Each structure stands twice: as C-alpha cells, then as structure tokens.
Amino acid sequence: MKKLLLSLAMLVLLLSACSKDESQPAKAEPEGPKTEEAKTTKAERDEEPTEEVYTPREVAYYEVEGVERELTELEQEMLRHPGVFSGDKYDEAKVQEALDQLPDDLTKEQYLEELKYLLTEDYHQEMETLLTFDSTIEVDIDRPDETVDAPTLKTAHYAILVDASGSMAAKVGGKTRMEAAKEAVMEFAEQVPENATISLRVYGHKGSNSDSDKGLSCDSTEVLYNSHFEAAGFQNALSQVKPVGWTPIALALQMVKGDIPEGTDDVVVYVVSDGIETCNGDPVKEAKDLVSSDIQTVVNIIGFDVDNEGQKLLKEVASAGNGEFTYVNSERDLKEYMRAQYQEIQKKWFEWKEAGKKQAFDIKEEKKKIAFDTKESVKEKAFREKERMKAAQEYLEDRFEDFDHPVRNVRSVVIDYTNDKRRYGIDTSNQLRRESIDNGNRERREYIDEGNQKIRETIDKKNGN
What is the pTM of this model? Predict the structure, then answer.
C-alpha cells in the first residue's frame, strides 16, 4: 500500500514538471554585442544637440561715382559698410556679448570676418576723397593767349576813333597830324592784350572838306578793323585812313556801339581828333548815351593841336564819357600820352600776375590740406580698428585652452588687415599731396613767367624799343 502511494506521488510530481516546462516560451538565440546607437535610448537621442552650420556674413559695400578704373581688392574692402560697433557705437561689453555667441570651431578666416562685422570702421568719406581727388591746379583767371589771361582785360574792347577831317593833313614837326596819329595808334594797338579785341573806326573820311561835300562827309563813318590785334591786318586798315573831310564826332560815338563784341565787360574808347564837331552833331549827348549802357565804358579824347575853344568842347565830351581829355600839340606829346596808357596796361599785367600767383598758391594749399586731413583720418580709424580687433581677439583667445585653436592665429591677420588700410591712406594721400604741390608750383611759375614777359614787352614798347 505504501509503495502504491509513493508511486502515485512521484507521478504527480512528474506531471507537474512537464506541465510547467510546456508553459515556458522557447529560448531565443543568443544576441550579439549591442551597437552604440542601439544602446542609446530615444530620450537620450532627443537630448543630443544638433550640429551647428556656420553661415558667412553678407557683406555690403559703398559705391563711389566718377571712378573710371577698377578698384583694387584693398580699395573695395575699405568701402565695406562699417561694423555694428564701429566708431562712436563701440561698447566693449556688447562686443564681448556678441563674441560669446560665436561657435567654438570656426576657422581663422571666419573669426576675422566676425571681427570685421563687429568692428570695421567707416572709411567711406575718406575713400571717396582719395578716389576722386583731382590734384590738378587750374587757376580761374583766363589767359590773353593759350597760357594766361589778364583778369581785368578778360572781356575788354578798345575802340579807336580816328578823325579823317582835312585839317589832319596839316604838318606838325615835319609830319602831318595824321601820320603822327597813325604811328602812335599803331604803337598803342600793339600793347593791347592778346585776348582783348580792338576796333578802328574812321569818321569824316568821304568826300572833301568843301561845303559841297559836307553832307557826304558828315554822314561818313566806317569800321576798318574789329578783331583781336593782328599787326599786318591792323596796319593795313590804318593805312586806308586819309585826311579829307569834316568832323562828325557825334556820329562816330553813336556808331561805335555796334563795334563792341557781345559779352564785353569793359570798353575804352579813344577819340583822336584835331578839332571839334563840325557836322552839327551832339558828341556830349552821344558820350553820355554810350556810358549809360550796361557795359562799363570810358571815352577818352585825345586832342591833337586843338585851339582853346576846341579844347573846351572836347573836354566836355570826355567828361560826359567818364574819361579824360588830353591835349597834345606834337608827335612827341601824342606818344607820351600813349606811353602813359602802356603804363596802365603794364600795371594790369602785374596785377594779373600777382592774382595768378596767389590763386595758384591758395588752391595748392587747400588741396594739400584735404590730402593731409584725409591721411590723418584714415590713420586714426585704422589704429582704432586694430586696437579694438586685437582686444576682441584676446577675449576670444581666453575662451580656449587649446594652443592650436584657430583663434590664436587671428591676431596676426588683424594687424596685417588694419596696417594695410593705414598704409594705403598714408601712401595715397602723400602722393596726391605731392602732385598738388608740383602742379601748383608749375601753375604759379607759368603766371610769373608769362606776366614778366608781357610786362617786359610793354616796357619795351613804352620806351620805344
């Protein structure tokens, strides 16, 4: 019985064991070693930072009009728009705050670009000055020829009215009044500045001084020459004047208005006559009308061997014309009067020379100052830019313990970058300054040489050489 019970118990245990084994799942094949990615949980993966991609700064540049050549790389760089903390906007704390936002793994060039973005100075005005600087010196005084001009003679016109009345054929000192007058007029005409114009008008040159020809002669006046002085042409015109008729001074003064070129500022009228008006005209009225126009006009009367009554009347004409009456009774007196006119022209040439010298000097000094001031401004800005960039580089350098980090190489490129700007400003400004000095001195010398030459020529003519 006991054996039977023991057998039943063992059977129950065996069945229980089989039932338990059948409820367990089949054992999986052994797994290999897990990868790092497999070991990382989803939560851990979500916490990992994404890799930052550096975006280069967009750079804007100023444009300078009037530069016909292609700019160099350095010139273009100096026209870069200023940094956000340039000039008076500099704030060291804000600069450092901006530097703290930079990635740790930029290249040397990228760090330099960031410093430029923050600290580049504004060279726009200086570059515009240097790139468009005109070192030529052009004195604003016209020249009487292709080289120089007298300011007071710039638009002057000299009108010579020659009396062709029959009385001009009378002899004085071995020559006729007409011959002496022609010689003196020719000498005077040779001294008129080359840029001025000169006209020769004859009056009373038709018919004769007889009563029958009075009407013809009194209605006669003609301009024989009107241009810049040319010796052969003027001499040829002067040779046509013959002493034959009456004396229509009023008509000549009236008609001389048409001889004045357009745009003339100053007119000097010389009336050469040996007598008074004989054609019933009113030369005093005509002289007044002549000087009342918009053109500055002076009427001078040269009385050649005129009697007392004639002198009185001619003085009235000169007075009405804001001029002077000069009495001459010989060829020598007439030439002396003309020499006095040469003296006045000589004075004007001297004044012209001095004005040209001064203006050339003043323009030269003004351009020298512009070049110097621009140079100093570039130097100051380049130095300030360098010091601020160096300070920023040192601040960045303190962030990294790695002695091979690219930021440690930025200092040298900062120094080269800013020194190149400084050197450009110095060299370019100095070159333009030297050119201005040379051009100013050359222009000044032209005025001195030309003025002295004209003064010598006038003195020679005045002295009869």
Answer: 0.52
